[in-house]
Design goal:
This protein is an all-alpha fold. It folds into 2 domains: 32 residues; 100 residues, no CATH class. 63% of the residues lie in helices and 0% in strands. It is built from 8 helices and no strands. Helix 3 runs antiparallel to helix 4, helix 4 packs across helix 7 and helix 6 runs antiparallel to helix 7. The protein is rod-shaped and about 125 Å long.
């Protein structure tokens, strides 16, 4: 190599690697992903709170059903009253006000899936029949009836009642 080339080569400096890629600021794709994750988290919390609020009456009914004891002389009536109050939360009062006896049992069974209806029918009918007996209720029938009531509250397919949808105020349309 000639002298001029050697001088030029001497002027060259070593290869400098670029600095490491910085974590911050994030690229726009990460911001989009972060926004989607935050929206999904907020949506999940809202749905969870709605579900929890919707099932509050169900949880309260199950607690009340567990508090009824076989020592009470009117436990069939107590179990039935709890079932009726629970149904009133989820269905309009006009639908339930005239139901008693066999029609009430049919309504209870209609809220269950087909496979569950057959297993619950006898126990719910027995509970309804015991309400109208003049004698003291049979203590041995308490456990199956209480289990049937708890099972109904757990497994019933409730819908949001039409009277609770939308606004919380009802208007009277008479003059």
């Amino acid at each position: 190599m000639n002298e001029q080339q050697q001088q030029l080569l001497a002027q060259l400096k070593g290869i400098h690697p670029p600095p490491d890629a910085a974590f911050w600021p994030l690229a726009w794709g990460w911001w989009v992903l972060l926004a989607v994750l935050v929206a999904a988290l907020v949506g999940a919390v809202i749905l969870w709170r709605r579900h929890r609020r919707f099932n509050a009456a169900r949880r309260q009914a199950m607690d009340e059903l567990r508090q009824v004891s076989s020592g009470d002389n009117n436990w069939p009536s107590q179990l039935n009253q709890i079932l009726k109050r629970t149904a009133l939360v989820y269905y309009p009062p006009a639908t339930l006000s005239g139901l008693y006896g066999q029609r009430w049992t049919q309504f209870l069974l209609a809220q269950l899936k087909r496979g569950q209806q057959q297993t619950m029918a006898a126990r719910l009918e027995h509970l309804q029949a015991m309400q109208y007996q003049p004698a003291k209720p049979d203590k041995q029938a308490f456990d199956p009836c209480q289990e049937a009531a708890i099972s109904w509250v757990k497994k019933a397919r409730f819908q949001q009642a039409a009277h609770t949808r939308g606004s919380t105020h009802t208007e009277v349309s008479h003059v």
